[in-house]
């Protein structure tokens, strides 16, 4: 059975827009109004099309299914991999090191013909355009419903740099553990972006916010405080009483030595504490406790967690969220 656009729309999670154009199904995690925020920054606009946080989830008794399409550059990374979990167990890791050299893909996944819950995690850092999806055997193809929704704002780490296994990006781990449909609004290189927080998307049950690293590197102290304060002011205005978890930056080798125009790393932490302190709905999360302070947990730049580091980040942040679902 070949899935039509109506069925594929039901199976996709994490997209606010799904449409077909010239035989390719286009997926978007940003609304037109949110994308307009980045209109004057071409590189950021491209990154809004990356498939971070998007997935297909369904229950089926098919004996196999296949999906095909194209991967298009949408970040500074060109690798792209899909993870496929069956009944909560990661069973397949499929993809290529370069969407420039190998843009077209088709993968067929065997199943046992029993009733299985399947999740296909999309790559975090490339744009994915589907051209088809097929099921062989069986009679059941049902979407999986979620208990809640969540939004993840942030920069490159939240977008998924440098997870080769997309299921291990920390937002995907949170979505799985909390049984949430997650909308990833992160852009690599982004800073506290007040206009983005003012637009809003739906009515989530919880929100995570993880900016600060790029602000610390490129802003003065006054700019840092002004942008961050405006972001949280706008966010809490659009989403009053929704729990917000403000995640301070994770460890890096320069934590104790680097001083920027915004100050030291510890001063940057204190600024984030100050800008969030007056909001009862915001719970501050100490990023230094999320990922081990070991180079082995990071990509060679020692800035972005690798798959190993993301496992710690997802698990530790989940504990913070479970402990503070009702921030005070």
Would you mind describing this structure in some detail?
This protein is α+β, with helices and mostly antiparallel strands. It has two domains: about 5-145, Galactose-binding domain-like (Jelly Rolls, Sandwich), CATH 2.60.120.260; about 150-325, 3-Layer(aba) Sandwich (Rossmann fold). Helices cover about 25% and strands about 30% of the residues. The protein is built from ten helices and 18 strands. Strands 1, 4, 6, 7, 9 and 11 form a six-stranded antiparallel sheet that branches. It has a five-stranded antiparallel sheet with strand order 2-3-10-5-8, with helices on one face. It is globular. It starts with a helix and ends in a 5-residue tail after the last helix.
Morphology: globular
> Uncertain regions: pLDDT < 50 for 5+ in a row?
none
What's the helix count?
10
Quick one: biggest sheet?
6 strands, antiparallel
Provide a concise account of the structure shown.
The chain is an alpha+beta fold and 328 residues long. The protein has helices at residues 5-11, 32-36, 42-47, 156-159, 170-178, 194-199, 213-218, 221-238, 265-276, 307-323, and strands at residues 12-13, 17-21, 24-28, 55-60, 64-73, 80-86, 89-96, 104-110, 116-121, 126-136, 141-143, 148-154, 180-184, 206-210, 244-247, 259-260, 263-264, 282-285. Strands 1, 4, 6, 7, 9 and 11 form a six-stranded antiparallel sheet that branches. Strands 2-3-10-5-8 form a five-stranded antiparallel sheet, with helices on one face. A five-stranded parallel sheet has the order 13-12-14-15-18, with helices on both faces.
């Amino acid at each position: 059975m070949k899935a039509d656009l109506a069925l594929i729309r039901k199976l996709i999670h994490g997209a606010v827009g799904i449409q077909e154009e010239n035989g390719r199904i286009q997926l978007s995690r940003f609304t037109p109004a949110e994308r307009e925020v980045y209109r004057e920054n071409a590189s950021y606009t491209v990154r809004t099309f990356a498939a971070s946080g998007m997935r297909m989830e369904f229950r089926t008794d098919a004996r196999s299914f296949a999906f095909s399409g194209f991967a298009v550059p949408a970040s500074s990374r060109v690798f792209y991999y899909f993870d496929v979990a069956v009944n909560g167990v990661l069973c397949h890791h499929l993809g290529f090191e370069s969407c420039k050299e190998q843009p077209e893909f088709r993968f067929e996944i065997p199943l046992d013909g029993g009733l299985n819950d399947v999740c296909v995690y999309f790559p975090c850092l490339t744009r994915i355009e589907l051209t088809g999806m097929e099921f062989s055997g069986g009679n059941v193809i049902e979407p999986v419903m979620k208990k809640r929704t969540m939004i993840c704002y942030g920069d490159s780490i939240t977008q998924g740099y440098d997870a080769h296994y997309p299921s291990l990006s920390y937002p995907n781990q949170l979505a799985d553990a909390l049984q949430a449909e997650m909308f990833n609004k992160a852009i690599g290189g982004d800073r506290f972006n007040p206009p983005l927080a003012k637009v809003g998307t739906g009515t989530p049950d919880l929100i995570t916010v993880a900016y600060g690293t790029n602000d610390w590197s490129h802003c003065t102290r006054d700019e840092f405080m002004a942008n961050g304060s405006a972001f949280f002011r706008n966010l809490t205005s659009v989403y009053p009483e929704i729990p917000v978890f403000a995640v301070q930056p994770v460890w890096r080798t320069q934590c104790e030595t680097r001083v920027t125009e915004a100050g030291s790393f510890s001063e940057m932490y204190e600024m984030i504490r100050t800008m969030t302190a007056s909001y009862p709905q915001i719970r501050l999360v100490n990023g230094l406790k999320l990922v081990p302070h070991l180079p082995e947990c990071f990509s060679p730049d020692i800035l972005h967690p690798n798959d190993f580091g993301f496992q710690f980040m997802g698990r530790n942040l989940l504990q913070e969220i479970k402990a503070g679902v009702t921030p005070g």
